[in-house]
Amino acid sequence: MKNRIERQGTAMKRVAIGIAGLLAVAGLPAQADTGNWRAGRVFAVENCRECHDVGNGKKMLSRMSGPSFRDVAAQAATTPLSLKVFLTTSHPAMPNFILSKTEIDNVIAYILSLRPAVQEKM
Q1: Is residue 94 part of a domain?
Q2: Is the residue at 77 inside a domain?
Q3: Which domain holds residue 65?
Q4: What is the CATH number of the domain that holds 110?
């Protein structure tokens, strides 16, 4: 009897977590679809290339310390939401940029445009 109750409780928790996750995702805008990748590229070249290879073929090797934008784009865990969280969170090794929603959407669209499958379609 106890095992059956425990299993039902575990199943209910899973269902509740699944529903909460679906509701959370349903309320999120599709950042990659709303951003302008060209504007995101301009922003990246102007603000990020000192420390990152932003995918424009020009590296500033003196301070290159961050991952390349192509490497970030190629990671399976990279999603519009993960990029948004990263771009809106302070990181000790990075300048504390405060980007507008539009700038965030544009940079996300640009990074995601660097995925190999996306590059082939462009």
Answers
A1: yes
A2: yes
A3: 30-121
A4: 1.10.760.10
> What secondary structure letter does DSSP report for 57?
S
Residue with tokens 């590229």: 41
25-45: pLDDT as tens digits: 444 444 345 899 999 999 999
Contact indicator for 72, 44 with CB cutoff of 8 Å: no
Ramachandran region, residue 55 (left: φ > 0; alpha: ψ -120 to 50; beta: rest): left
pTM of the predicted model as reported, rounded to 2 decimal places = 0.66
CB atoms within 10 A of CB 34: 14
d(CA 54, CA 58): 8
* Cα–Cα distance measured from residue 93 to residue 110, given in angstroms and rounded to the nearest whole number: 22
The pair of structure tokens assigned to 21 is 């996750």
pLDDT value, residue 18: 44
- 34 or 82, which is more confident: 82
- Give the ranges where 52-115 is alpha helix by DSSP (H): 69-74, 80-87, 101-113
Among candidate residues 44, 96, 99, 100, the one with its CA nearest the CA of residue 72: 44
